[in-house]
UniProtKB/TrEMBL annotation:
Region: Disordered, residue numbers: 30-52
Organism of provenance: Trichonephila clavipes (Golden silk orbweaver)
The name this protein goes by in its record: Transposable element Tc1 transposase
Length: 138
């Protein structure tokens, strides 16, 4: 796109990236004739491959599938490897698992609260027989 004369802004919009990223990419291509990341770029791994497999196995078998709301600190203690919580999140992502933080309370909008109140008021005079005809689910 750049060789066709497109501006950096237009290319960034087309590929859904920032102008800075497109500019850096083009500069690297001009300098090195490649767009590959350099070896050794990024943070170094704090765990060995063996520990990585152990962490994923622990996450997969015991905690993440059984209870996805387990905090990362608990997972770290159970695995027995001295790692930061971000490493646990990375391993969860690599294993296609997700941890979920439970809601303290449902995020209700004022409009939804009003609708709930109206629903309850409309049924405030129902008796047991009326309620037995309702199926509840969460």
């Amino acid at each position: 796109m750049k060789t066709e004369g497109w501006s950096t802004r237009r290319v960034a919009g087309q590929v859904d990236s920032s102008e800075c990223a497109v500019r850096n990419y083009c500069e690297q291509w001009t300098r090195e004739s490649t767009h590959a990341r350099k070896t050794g770029s990024g943070a170094s791994r704090k765990t060995t491959r063996r520990e990585d497999r152990r962490i994923v196995r622990e996450l997969d078998q015991e905690l993440a599938l059984v209870d996805p709301t387990v905090p990362r600190s608990t997972i770290r203690e159970d695995v027995g490897v001295a790692i930061v919580p971000q490493t646990i999140s990375s391993h969860l992502a690599e294993a296609n698992l997700k941890s979920k933080r439970p809601f303290r309370a449902l995020p209700l909008t004022p409009e939804y609260r009003q609708l709930c109140l109206q629903w309850c008021q409309a049924r405030s005079m129902w008796n047991v027989t009326d309620w037995q005809k309702v199926v509840f689910s969460d």
